[in-house]
Fold:
Amino acid sequence: MAAAFASVQLSVSSKPSSRTACLVISIEYRLAPEHPLPIAYDGCWTALQWVVSPNSNGASNKEPWLSTCADFDRVYVGGVSAGANLTHNTLMRAGSDALHGGVKIKGAFLARPYFWGSNPVGSESKNMEETENRLR
Structure:
């Protein structure tokens, strides 16, 4: 797990950005246990609404670079590990709640999604540390 501005995260986001001329915005979300779920889900939704807000009438987000650089007809969301879980939840919410300006999410990528239920599935262990060590 790394912060949005950690070198490993910057590498993950800057490569596709430089190779495809896309704008990548990395979200820093609040972590459990200090901030239990659904705080991270709500924070990511709020951040996405902020990103697309220049596309709406009467936008409260007055970031000229975002209005100039972003193509709101081609919005993709994605994440790695726990970020993929956050992406999944953001997509589910986008299916029922509208984004500002009528923006639609065109696609998503989930890399090594991390989902943990209350009951183990298949060969999953109840011991989180054991499972994480197996994935390394």
